[in-house]
Design brief:
This protein is an alpha/beta fold. The chain has one domain: TIM Barrel. It has nine helices and eleven strands. It has a six-stranded parallel sheet with strand order 2-3-4-5-10-11. Strands 1-9-6 form a three-stranded antiparallel sheet, with no helix packed on it. A two-stranded antiparallel sheet has the order 7-8. Strand 4, helix 5 and strand 5 form a beta-alpha-beta unit. Bound molecules: flavin mononucleotide (FMN). The site of flavin mononucleotide has 21 residues, from loops.
């Protein structure tokens, strides 16, 4: 998928009044993905999130669609360290920092998050992409460029999860193109402690449940008692 929906949303007040009460009806953990357009805005948001009945916060430092937004903080060791450490000071809840793949070396921002006290890092966000309508000779997206996601980006994501898991000592949450249990196992072998599914939900809303069942089948076939034992266990050639 190539999207340029940006990060439009009704904001934190609306979330508190409407979305959170609805989410609380389900027996599951709630991790809130948060994005601001300045360091100050991230900190303001984190202060509010700290007062809510949620299980953790994922800082989006990686969206490629916002002109002067989060991507500016997410591409360097220093940028990630600065915003993460300021948020860390006001947030007592588990803090995950989500990283952009649109960098030369993703281990650098990952180390910035770790050094600033993040509890984990998640990766990858979308890869910057572009598509051209050859009849109109104009980009397909109104925003010209957008974020590429889904199975096409999986090998890039697996590679980056592997690199980051080797470079930091905090848990890595892996995502990027996961659509079934085999993909989940691949990410865990590369070093992911947990995974997320984004684009796959547009294809099949129950994809997460199916993937869990497929992981259980894999565990039976390979005599695995505890899924944690496969984390980072890929044997390199
Ligand atoms: C329509 C759409 C909206 C997204 N919105 C967000 C967002 O608000 N915050 C964020 O951190 N990532 C966002 N992402 C990125 C995904 O969470 C994910 O990192 C990326 O798409 C790769 O995973 P996937 O291939 O499973 O989708 C969005 C992706 C898509 C396709």
């Amino acid at each position: 998928m190539l999207n340029s929906i940006g990060l439009q949303n009704p904001g934190i007040e609306y979330f508190m009044q409407n979305d959170l009460p609805w989410l609380k009806k389900f027996d599951t953990k709630i991790i809130v993905n948060a994005c601001g357009s300045s360091v100050e805005e991230y900190v303001e948001l984190a202060k509010v999130l700290n007062t809510l009945d949620i299980d953790g916060v994922e800082l989006n430092l990686s969206c490629p669609n916002v002109k002067s937004g989060c991507m500016a903080f997410g591409t360097s060791y220093e940028g990630v360290k600065e915003v993460t450490s300021k948020v860390r000071k006001v947030l007592d809840k588990p803090l995950i920092v989500k990283l952009t793949p649109n960098v030369t070396d993703i281990t650098e921002p990952a180390k910035g998050a770790e050094d600033a006290g993040a509890d984990g890092v998640s990766l990858i966000n979308t890869l910057l992409g572009m598509s051209i309508d050859i009849e109109k000779q104009r980009p397909v997206l109104a925003n010209n460029m957008g974020g590429l996601s889904g199975p096409a980006i999986k090998p890039v994501a697996v590679r980056m999860v592997y690199q980051v898991a080797k470079a930091v000592n905090i848990p890595v949450l892996g995502l990027g193109g996961i659509v079934n249990g085999r993909d989940v196992i691949e990410f865990m072998l590369a070093g992911a402690t947990a995974i997320s599914i984004g684009t796959g939900n547009f294809i099949e809303p129950e994809i997460s449940i199916k993937a869990i069942n497929e992981v259980e089948d894999y565990m039976k076939r390979h005599d695995i008692e505890d899924i944690n034992t496969i984390i980072g266990q890929v044997q390199m050639n």
